[in-house]
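Worked example 2:
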Amino acid sequence: MLQLGNIRSPTGRVLQLLGQLSCRECSRDQGQGPPDGVKSTDKRVGPGPSSAQNLNLPLKGPLEFGDYQIVGTRQRIRAQVLAQVPRHIGKPEYYASGEPRSFTKALPIIKFEEELPKIRESCRLARFVLDALTKEVKVGVSTEDLNNYAHHLIVSNGAYPSPLNYKKFPKSICTSVNNVVCHGIPDERRLVDTDILNIDVTVFLEGYHGDCSETVQLPAVDKQGTDLIQATKVCLYEGINACGPGVPIKAIGQSIEAMAEKLGFKVVPVFTGHGIGTFFHEPPDIYHIDYPYPGLMRDRMTFTIEPILSQGTESISIQEDGWTAITQDGSRSAQFEHTVLITDFGTEILT
């Protein structure tokens, strides 16, 4: 079990295949430790009906993809009690209803100069929380443990965990293991030494969201898993390097897909990056494939780049919990994500 000790922060959509679903449609810096009376109160309320879609996948992954366990193929729908967030913390528009604002054919939102410091603070907190979580990834720790620790860190720093109740998502972070592509719901399964794990953290601080994710590996992950993780990180930075004022938005996906193919992997095309700011997901959509998305990047535009690479198929299935996305052939996937800001001079990585 993770210990929730005091800690100081650093500064005192399924694309309707070829429509769109932002990744993580379903998700960082002030203060020291939890304020008096603040506790991580995430609880489960008994198992609900067992159900999830069963693709008849074996416990072990297909041999051509390496040595690892298949997970997420029998995700149950469970009754959930949402973790509590103190009243004094600012909350996004969906925190009570679970229904975020939707955008239809909207133009990318260009931020005002005075908004940028708050976006930077939110992104710094997101990175701080993600870095703290990756240090706690160990054999025997459950993703539920990581979720509770994340919730504690976020609320004790005066922020709201953006995934919580976003379109009814029941947890404060997403945790995706092995063949789970994204949007994995933290649960009681304990990590084993051959796992790879993506942790996706988004926080809402003083009216702005900051979003980042990273895939980490346990001690006995094989070379195939390590190569997948390294290739995904390379592709993220390939996409970031394609950014700049006046550059077509579609150049990001073109660069990422070309690099993924060169490295021998496939991009999972159904999940995109997204604009971010006062809204968790806003225009533009950031495709990670060669897709003719219109428009140019402009100064003061903020968005996420978050490619997912697969060892095998690019096809996914959504489990009956409505969130967990898994590869259809049981192959592993990995994801990395940054929030970026376009400036007059280039690109600033905010996370």
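Helices lie at 116-134, 143-156, 223-241, 250-263. Residues 1-22, 24-57 have pLDDT under 50 and may be disordered.
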